[in-house]
Amino acid sequence: MSFRNLKTLLFLFLLLTLFTGCTNSEEANKPADSKKEEKQETKKESKPETKESDSKLKKEIPPAPTSINEVFAYPNGKFAGEEVYDTTSGVKEELLKDMPKLDEDANEETLDLYFNNLVALYWNGFTDPATLVDKWKLYSFGSPEIEDPKFQFKENYNVEIILDASGSMAKKVKGKTQMELAKEAIDNFVQSLPDKANVGLRVYGHKGSGSDSDKKLSCESSDLVYPIASYNATEFDKALNQFQPKGWTPITLALEEAQKDLSKYPADKNNNIIFLVSDGIETCEGDPVTAAKKLVDSNISPIVNVIGFNVDGEGQKQLKDVAAAAGGIYTDINDQTQLKEEFKRVEEIAKRWEQWKKDSLREADAIKVERYFEALGFTNEWESKKTKLSNNISGSITYLSNEDYITREQREILKDKEEKLNEFIEKSGLEVENYLNSMNEKTFEQMKQDINEKYKLN
Q1: Which tops the pLDDT comparison, 46 or 4?
Q2: Full-prediction pTM beyond 0.85?
Q3: Best label site of 76, 128, 138, 147, fewest CB within 10 Å?
Q4: Which residues on neighbouring strands pair with residue 229, listed in sequence order?
Q5: Minimal CA–CA distance to 182: which of 161, 213, 159?
Q6: Which value, to the nearest 10 degrees, does the dihedral of the CA atoms of residues 170, 176, 178, 180 take?
């Protein structure tokens, strides 16, 4: 290599070194804020706009109740009546789909929302005291103190059961479909009625399917499969077992047809009782609330018992409105045992009606004793629902922690929230129990008015 070429290489090397040094020097002399902004900008570009815990959690849900009024108004959840520890229910699998994995740095607001989502999933409505008074009134059927003519014994006693046979009744509860459980409870009930009592069975949702193409057929179908008459075991079993859950839910049509079924049994000589058993809302664009109002204002003036079988919040609200419009009683149930208990009340009334036909009325003291036991049943049901809710939320928190969906610290925060909610519900239950016991001496009308004013239930 010539000397001239060597000089050229050395000159280029010095230039490169000088340029690199200047660049490093400029970078080192940049203001700290400028560096920080560049790093934040780079980080911001790679970070998703919304955290998973924020995007998956439902924000449009009511917060956990903090007052008794909120307890009564809170809607049933997706897993109402289910148990997280029941391996056959599939709740755990669904829980992981509904609840997101929380970020380790989740703030207090996100933890509150996370807890509220858990409460909303498992909430199973607590019976309000006005409903209990309605049941007291029903249980005191025939008492001389009741002025409402619907609750005074008449010459004839008629019961019509309206049963939902829509596709959703195929849902299983502890190994049996809701339809199977309902049929068994109905069969037991009608067998227990007095010989001179009449019974009828109407069904809806039993034709077509849940598809749009079958909607017209299903929504126009409601049949009186056992016409109102005395009970005949062979004929009733045949009627009860001829249908399975299939289609849509035309509650309005069923109520309108029930009014026709009982039209030849006017209220001046007949005690008419209707059971509406449904697991969801009207799906045929009808107006069941208006139909219920027309039903109770008709010449048959029936007592309407609306039973919500594992209904969600929307179904619960509509069925409550149907019962209110009919001046009737709404009851939430989750299993066959509870359904049998509701039928049992009317079974007992029928037996008392039979005794009345033999000129044997109950004494007022006996009525007060029965009210006491009804109040005790209210308390036991409250405690049972409180315990199940607590176990479900607490168990879910533990399960989510074990699955690494929440940290240990988050688990403890959520469990503390659950304990506070449990204490509040227990305190509320005791308050309602004491209030009810203090009202036993009042008339039903006074009780209902006082309760509606105290708990703002209207």
Answers
A1: 4
A2: no
A3: 147
A4: 199
A5: 161
A6: 100
